[in-house]
Amino acid sequence: MKLTVGHLYPEYLNIYADRGNIAVLRERARARGHEVEVTGIGVGHAVPEAIDLFYVGGGQDREQALVATDLERKGEALRVAVAGGAAMLAVCGGYQLIGRFYRDRAGAELPGIGLLPLHTIAGERRMIGDVLLDCEWVGKTLAGFENHAGRTYLEPGAEPLGRVLAGFGNDGKSGYEGCRDGRVYGTYLHGPLLPRNPWFADRVLADALAHRAGEEVELTPLPDELEAAAHEVSAARARSRGGRY
Ligand code: GLN
Q1: What is the percentage of the chain residues whose pLDDT exceeds 70?
Q2: What atom in ligand 1 is closest to the CA of residue 57?
Q3: What spacing in Å lies between the alpha carbon of 57 and ligand 1's midpoint?
Q4: b (16+ CB within 10 A) / e for 117-142
Q5: Is 99 left (phi over 0), alpha (psi -120 to 50) or beta?
Q6: Pick from 40, 51, 37, 36: which is nearest to 10 by CA?
Q7: Which of 12, 92, 102, when mutated, tests ligand 1's pocket best, judged by the most ligand atoms within 8 Å of its CB?
Q8: What pLDDT, on the 0 to 100 scale, is given for residue 242?
Q9: Rounded Cα distance, 73 and 77, in Å
Q10: Candidates 3.10.580.10, 3.40.50.10540, 3.40.50.880, 3.40.1580.10; correct CATH number of 2-241?
Q11: Catalytic site residue 92?
Q12: What rounded mean pLDDT belongs to the chain?
């Protein structure tokens, strides 16, 4: 199959090598004989039809402010696409903007597109460091790196991505990180995230393929030795020092 990926604001929201997540999706799709076509969706661009997976990375408050109004204009098209089964992966600053709103450190309230039931308010101290999550919904762990001033609050009934084993997570208090709703995933985990968490890369890939195929798709397992080793290194770092100011 040929998968279409819509990369939102690649020129503005792309810190901590978040672009690397797309490279991983492309290689893991190719290893199963599928092709990935990536379209950049910038400020002023229309949301293309028939996108299987939307991706948006992280960015500083300044960059988020540069795209928030444009993203709000794209909101309806993105909500319709997701309601139609398209998948989405949003990281950090992008994660904050697919919630209800992000109130930045200057107190400015940036509109969100409400794809996830949450809002974010920036605090004084940044939450920086390695993170390890327990994703009970699949019995696996996620390892990555966080750097955010935003404290994200999930609404009642919202599903977190994982329980924090080490690190700060959404707000440094709730003990949870990220949020997921069907094929929409939001997380603070940079790194990039997917190279060291192959099961999650395959989860996002399988959701995108299911949109394209109109039915759930099984992915043949890949060896993933290097990826598993990278996960262990990241997890060990998180256990040893995650979650400390
Ligand atoms: N600017 C946002 C914050 O500080 C997001 C940061 C990021 O994407 N790393 O919380």
Answers
A1: 100
A2: 8
A3: 10
A4: bbbbbbeeeebbbbbbbebeeeebbb
A5: beta
A6: 40
A7: 92
A8: 83
A9: 8
A10: 3.40.50.880
A11: yes
A12: 96
pLDDT at 16 over 80: no
Asked about 148 being catalytic, the answer comes back as no
Q: What is the pLDDT of residues 29-46, one digit of tens each?
A: 999 999 999 999 999 999
Listed residue (50, 46, 39, 36) closest to 85, CA to CA: 50
pLDDT at 244 over 80: no
Residue 15 CB–ligand 1 contact under 6 Å = yes
Say if ligand 1 is within 6 A of residue 60 CB.
yes
Residue 15 scores a pLDDT above 90: no
Confidence of residue 19 (pLDDT cuts 50, 70, 90): confident
CA distance 128 to 215: 39
Cβ of 64 less than 6 Å from ligand 1: yes
Annotated catalytic residue within 34, 190, 211, 231:
190
Given ligand 1 and candidates 56, 62, 64, which is best to mutate, with the most ligand atoms within 8 Å of its CB? 64
Reported as a pLDDT band with limits 50, 70 and 90, residue 108 is very high
What average pLDDT does the segment 137-162 reach?
98
Question: Residue whose CA is closest, atom 5 of ligand 1?
Answer: 93
